[in-house]
Design a protein that fits this description.
By secondary structure, this protein is an alpha/beta fold. It is built from 13 helices and 10 strands. Strands 1, 2, 3, 4, 5, 6, 7, 8, 9 and 10 form a 10-stranded mixed beta sheet that branches.
Length: about 325
């Protein structure tokens, strides 16, 4: 990539890095050699305890007009670290990557070209899951173009990932929108908000992002307490993020499906802990079943049977379980 010192920044690429010294020498290569000119790479060292910062500073010294390093003394998690990057971004568009994933050196050129071609607020591309060698694009042609309630709903229900997409910066700035600190599912409510707020979306039908999930099951397993806390907070965040938007009624069924799916995940963890005989002092599954029911009561008003996405996509046994939990704690 040829570096430009005078041109306006087209894309700000934001990468949180925590204890990533083992992978950065490999993963940073295609990031700093992007084929798109006039970009900035903002990498946030999220209070790493290894030599991540040292590697990042060497990278910055090699590409001083391209790479910016933010050194956070406090561990903020991926969401909080990305927030620091968003605050520092100056590009017309914002893109993301994770430090342990791999990107095509044409990723941001292809996304940016498509964004300019159609004046899209968001552009998505295909990704591959390294462990399964499974490729997917979450944004199909049936949901591209100008967004209406139906397309927004299908995007919310379909899910996807923050980092396969390019976003017009205004989506984060008008009004200011930032991610939640120190949690998993930190981008779920952000994606819901982006789909609700964006006027249009395009896609690039190429596999340009590789998600490195080979060690996911070992590295991302959480204690039941922390897992349910994250699910509970994500349920509330998905509701709080969008329920005041003027178009909420048109996407409400999709948002409530998403929250119901999280409810299933949390309740399943509680039931598993009960079956495994986890001691109450370590994890009070009854208390968490009650809290999850309370979160559901606050965020979901459409009966499950009347939500087409719930009935189509959530297993009947899971629906029975959450209905039973609702009834058990209906007086809360």
């Amino acid at each position: 990539m040829s570096e430009s010192k005078t041109s306006k920044i087209k894309v700000s690429v934001i990468i949180p890095a925590y204890n990533a010294a083992h992978i950065l020498p490999t993963s940073l290569g295609p990031v700093v050699h992007q084929s798109l000119n006039d970009i900035e790479i903002i990498i946030i060292n999220d209070a790493s305890s290894d030599n991540t910062l040292e590697i990042l500073m060497r990278c910055q010294s090699q590409f001083p007009s391209l790479v910016k390093i933010i050194n956070s003394k406090e561990n903020l998690g991926p969401g909080g670290a990305r927030n620091l990057g968003i605050d520092a971004a100056s590009g017309d568009y914002i893109g993301f990557a994770d430090a342990d994933d791999f990107v095509s050196d044409r990723l941001f050129e292809r996304l940016y070209e498509k964004a300019i071609e159609g004046d899209y607020d968001i552009v998505d591309c295909g990704m591959i899951f390294k462990a399964e060698e499974k490729a997917i694009i979450y944004t199909g042609d049936n949901v591209t173009g100008t967004l209406d309630d139906d397309k927004r709903s299908r995007l919310i229900v379909g899910g996807g990932y923050l980092y396969t997409k390019l976003y017009k910066r205004y989506l984060f700035e008008n009004p200011p929108v930032r991610m939640r600190n120190n949690c998993i599912l930190e981008d779920s409510d952000i994606l819901t908000y982006m789909f609700a707020k964006a006027k249009s979306i395009g896609n690039v039908k190429e596999i340009l992002y590789q998600y490195n999930n080979e060690a996911e099951s070992a590295s991302k397993i959480q204690e039941p307490q922390k897992y349910c806390e994250n699910i509970y907070n994500a349920m509330l965040a998905n509701y709080e993020r969008v329920h005041d938007l003027t178009n909420y009624q048109g996407i409400k069924m999709a948002v409530e499906y998403e929250i119901a799916q999280m409810y299933v995940y949390g309740l399943t963890m509680c039931l598993k802990a009960q079956m495994d005989g986890v001691k109450k002092e370590r994890f009070d599954h009854i208390e968490w079943m009650k809290r999850l029911a309370a979160a559901k009561k606050k965020t979901i008003t459409i009966p499950y049977e009347e939500n087409k996405y719930v009935m189509e996509k959530i297993d009947k046994i899971d629906i029975r379980n959450i209905k039973g939990n609702d009834k058990r704690f209906e007086d809360i």
